[in-house]
Structures are given as C-alpha cells and as structure tokens.
Amino acid sequence: MCGIIGYIGNKNVTGVLIQGLKSLEYRGYDSSGIAIRNSKDLKIVKSVGKIVNLEEKVKNINGIYNVGIGHTRWATHGEVNEINCHPHNVNNVTLVHNGIIENFRELKRELEIIGYKFKSNTDSEVIAALIDSYNGDKYDALVYAQMKMRGSYALVIMFSDEKDCLYAMKKDSPLVVGIGKNENLVGSDVSIILPYTKKYIDIDDGEIVKITKNNVSVYNENGLISKNIQIANWSLDDAQKCGYEHFMLKEINDQKQLCIKLYDKFVSENNYSNEIPDISKYDNVDIVACGSAFFAASIGKYLIDNYICDGSIHVNVDVSSEYRYKKHFYNDKSLVIVLSQSGETADTLACLRMANSLNVDTLAIVNVPSSSIAKEAKMVMPMLAGPEIAVATTKGYFAQVLDLSLIVQKLAYVKGLISKNQKDELIRTFKRLNDIIDDLFNIDYSKIASKLFLKEHIYFIGRGLDYIVGLEASLKLKEISYIHSDVYQAGELKHGPIALINKNTPVFSIITNDEVMEKSLSNAIEAQSRGAKLYLLVTEEINVDNLKIEELICVPAVSDFYQSLINIIPFQFIAYEVAKMKGCDVDKPKNLAKSVTVE
Ligand code: M6R
Q: What CATH architecture is 239-441?
C-alpha cells in the first residue's frame, strides 16, 4: 500500500525521490508527492495518478535541493486528490505516512479546539499537527506523538527549522534506513536503497531515528541504541525488469532459477537440510494466509492429509481475516504456520501476533527478510524468491508451495511414511525441477490468450490438487485481466454451476491426477455437451485422442509433491498474455496493492 522515502545527501534529491517512488510503485498507489528543502525554502509537489505525472511537474523546479521526502498514496482516508496526497505540512512539520491512525478523529477534535485547521481528510495531516502542537524539543515531540497515536505508522518527518536532518519512526509498518557514503536514505523497503547502498538498518517499533548526511542515530526508551547494520542480499537487478517487458514476465521466468536456489538451500548431501523445519513434534497444525498464499496453504494441507496418512497430524487451513476472529484451542503440540510473501499482510500479521500471544509455536514461510512477520515468528523458513514487484504473485506463490512441499516431504520421511528410496527419488526430482519445467517456458501462450481475451466468463474445473491449482489460475486471470472466472471441483459442476455454461463458454479442465482422470474427463465432457469450449491441461500420460478440444496443454507428470508447481506455470503465462492483449496494466492492476497492510 502506501510507500515512503526520505533522502539526505549530496545528490539532487528530486531525482532520488522520483526513482525511489518508482521502485515503490509495486505496492499500489493512486497519487504521489514529494517535499524538498534547501536552506532557503520548502517545496511540495503533488500529483494524482501515475508517478510520470509527478515527474512532469517536478521538471519545473529550479535550484538545488539535497533533503527531501516522498510518498505514494493508496487512499484510505479521503478521496484521491492532491489535497489528501502526501506530504502534509503543518507549520514547522512536513511528513509522509504509511499506515492508519485509528484515533485520528479524536486527536483531530483536540487539535481543532486549540486552533488547528485542517485542509485534508487524512489521518496523516493530523499527525503533522500533533507533532507541531508539542511545545519543546523535537525528539520529545515525536515521543509525545507516539504516546498519543493508536494504530500503525511509518513516518518520515522534516522540521522546517532544522534544515540538515530527517526524523523517522514506526509502529507496525515497515521502515528501513539505508546507510550510504555522505548520504543516507529511509523508506518502506530495501528496494529504495539498492541504487546507492546495500547497507541498511532495520527499524523496530517504537524506535525514533535521526538521520543526517553523515550519521544515523537510533533511539528507544533507553536512549541512544546501537543497531546491527545488515547487508541486503537483493541486487539492483533483482528489482529491475532486466529486459523483460513486465516485472510479471520476469518473475514467471525467475521460477526456473528459484528451483536451483531452493535446492541449494534445502538439500544437503542428498538429504533434507536442517534449514527445513522439522514439524514432527506437532499434532495440530493450522496454516493461515491470504489470497494466493492461502491457495499455497491449501496445497500444504492436501499434501499433509494425503502423505502423513498415519493420522498423527490434524491440519487446518484458513484465510487470515477469518482465522483471527475464531476461537482456538491450542496445546503444546500445536503449531501455527503463516505464509506471506511480503511479510506485512495485516491480517496474517494479526494471526501471527495472536498465536504468539497465546504462546503457541509459530512458523513463518516468508519472502521479505526484514518484514514484521519474519521478525516476529518464532521460526522462519525463507522463500528466497528475491523482490517480487508485480502485484500478481507468481514466483512468491511458487516458493510458498515448494517450501510447504519440502516441509511435508521431510515430515513424511522423519515419520517413516516414505522410504529412503522414495525420499531419494523426490530429492532427485527436485534437483531436476528447473529442467523439468523448462519446456513450459517455450510454449506460445498467445494463441490460447487470443481465444480468451474478449470473453466475459471463464471456468476452471479440477479435482484435488488440480482444483487448488484452478483457484490460483483463476485469481491470476481476474487480478490482471479483469475477466470474471470461477473455479469448481469438477464433480460439483453438475450440482449447480453447469447452469452457467453457454455456447462457447471457455472451460479449463485440469486433469493431472491419474486416480480421478476418467471421472474428471467425464466432467469436462458434461460441460462440453452444454456448449462449452474445452481447454485441457493434462499430463503427457493422459490420452485425450478422442476428444474435441479447443486447446491442449501437456505438462510433465511428476510426484504430487511437485505437480501443482508445474501445473500453475502455463496459467501464469496465459493470464499474462490475456492481460497484455487487453491492454491492461499487467504489473499494477487497478484497485490492488502488493502488500495489503490494512485489515
Ligand atoms: O504478501 P502476502 O503473501 O501475504 O500476500 C497475500 C495476498 O495478498 C496475495 O497473495 C494476493 O492475493 C496477490 N495479489 C495474488 O496475486
């Protein structure tokens, strides 16, 4: 959602801020703005819509400015317009804010009583007034604001009467400080610092940072503290398109390399490495996530249900926004697994915090190492997917499924439910996974997309794992091409949804499980008999010679532990091609944010 950045150094700050805001675009936004300052004046420039609009406006700025802050806004309080857009200025205080202040109405009333007048409808302008209203030292003013505010915030603040520094602080919203040479940066994530430095400090809740060109001081309630300087293991290339037309296309392609990266991390001497959590001591496992991560969780449940077949584990999956409001009865053999690419998804973070507060063991499968979820979970299994910029997840989902598959493989092996030979075979397949999927990257999916891009409704059917793959395939298509699609368990079609099938309705039937192959084929034919155009995704072993098929995609057959990873790739490409043909903004679909930090 919103993204923030601050810079102080020798460079022309406008260029740094615009570049930084562009690297935060993926978070989702509807307007943007910057505030820059030199010894003479403060300039604030705001614009609705894409950052190129802001870029156009700042071209007219003359003079040299070396300090500034910037913001991409995803509207929560007040409509999308320049007044509500950040930075907000109240007298001596100019700031950008990511988060939501829950008690802002109450604070606003108090400030109005003492004479403050507000221009915008935002909670963020109230923070600027709150800080300004404190009569005293700047640091104390920030502590005062911390005490008064309820909610979440990452803030970068400039004071007009203190020209050579920036202040920043956070609670429940991410904030990192990049340590450069004669320059320092602060912002929502490491992508903003990568063009300048790989060194960064992770700011924790409650801390206040004072940043000058040559110094970064971090304070908490104990005074000045020393923080570890970390080295970003993401390169600048990781966060760039590298010649691909879109980030999504790059990230789909990154999946081949990701197989190798995960193999190197999680396999050691032909065995599951200690980096894969051993969850054999738990008998009650809840897996919790949102969106695509929830579908990955559902694959994890399927694998546990089917391969930990001695009844020793009960596994439950839930979407985070539901799970957090249910009653839970944990014991010392309970484990809560949370899945999150961003590590900041508000509902998933809330579930993690709830579980932590109830003293149950927690494990996070998470991509962003400096995220709140990575920091707060008791155990962490990294996804190693590198920065995922496109709003629609591809490699993030892939890594989540693969991580869970490895946890379940290891569990099955530890419990003696798969033999050494089976384990060796699974590890051999893992080693070859990047080769196994290679052919799927050479198919021309635009032919299939050309038959779909003008359709209004598309259906996916499948059984078991294939049904779950259908859920993710359908979400990809919806998110970026805005085509309505629905997913049904193939056997359920005739219990109602088949009424929706008209002449030429596209139906994707996913059939990669031998055991139910005949039944799934019958379900596909039932749809075809009602006029549906049949698109099949099958394994090479399934014979479909006698069927009239619109399009056929053949994928290699592998163990269930990897099959759903293979099956999703063609659907990622199809969604991408359809969205492109429709002229949609593939990487930044409307209404969506990459990291959903509101509940
Ligand atoms: O960062 P997270 O994995 O926690 O995000 C969860 C969902 O918001 C995310 O998967 C969302 O559904 C994506 N837009 C799917 O492409």
A: 3-Layer(aba) Sandwich (3.40)
Per-residue pLDDT for 194 more than 80?
yes
Q: Is 362 in contact with 338 (CB distance < 8 Å)? A: yes
Ligand 1 pocket residues where CB is under 6 Å: 290-293, 340-342, 345, 348, 391-393, 475, 479, 592, 595-596
Structure tokens at 401: 């499924």
Sign of CA dihedral 577, 578, 583, 584: negative
C-alpha distance across the termini of the chain, in Å: 12
What is the CA(321)–ligand 1 centre distance, in A? Answer: 13
Pairing label, strands 284-289, 314-319: parallel
Residue type, 66: N
Q: Which residue has the tokens 């004046």?
A: 41
SS3 335: strand
Q: Whose CA is nearest to atom 11 of ligand 1?
A: 291
CA-wise closest residue to 31 among 14, 13, 54: 54
The CA-based angle 477-590-14, given to 5 degrees, is 130
Query: Ligand 1 centre from 192 Cα, in Å?
Result: 21
Distance CA 590, CA 56 (A): 22
Whole-angstrom Cα distance, residue 553 to residue 575? Answer: 15
pTM above 0.90, yes or no: no
Torsion of CA 279, 283, 288, 294, to 10 degrees: 80
What does the DSSP assignment read for 377-415?
A: SSEEEE-------SSS-SHHHHHHHHHHHHHHHHHHHHT
Other residues' Cβ atoms within 10 Å of the Cβ of residue 448: 22
Cα 347 from Cα 567, distance rounded (Å)? 28
Q: What are the extents of the domains in the chain?
A: 3-232, 239-441, 443-599
Confirm whether 165 is a catalytic residue.
Answer: no
Measured distance CA(351)–CA(372) in Å, rounded: 12
Whether the ω angle into residue 87 lies within 30 degrees of 0, i.e. cis, is: yes
For residues 391 and 395, give the distance between their C-alpha atoms in angstroms, rounded to a whole number: 11
Q: Are residues 248 and 392 in contact, defined by beta-carbon separation less than 8 angstroms?
A: yes
Active site residue 594: yes
Q: What is the distance between the alpha carbons of residues 76 and 74, in angstroms, rounded to a whole number?
A: 6
Name the residue with tokens 């810079």. 7
Under a CB-based contact definition with an 8 Å cutoff, are residues 376 and 356 in contact?
Answer: yes
Per-residue H/E/C for 518-580: HHHHHHHHHHHHCCCEEEEEEECCCCCCCCCCCEEEEECCCCHHHHHHHHHHHHHHHHHHHHH
**CATH of region 443-599:** 3.40.50.10490
Q: How far is CA 33 from CA 4, 27, 216, in A?
A: 10, 15, 25
Structure tokens at 160: 């007009």
Same fold, 3-232 and 443-599: no
What phi-psi label fits residue 223: left (phi over 0), alpha (psi between -120 and 50 degrees) or beta?
left
Q: What are 561-585's pLDDT values in tens digits?
A: 999 999 999 999 999 999 999 999 9
pLDDT 10s digits, 104-151 = 999 999 999 999 999 999 999 999 999 999 999 999 999 999 999 999
- What residues are paired with 374 via a beta bridge? none
Does the domain at residues 3-232 carry the CATH identifier 3.40.50.300?
A: no
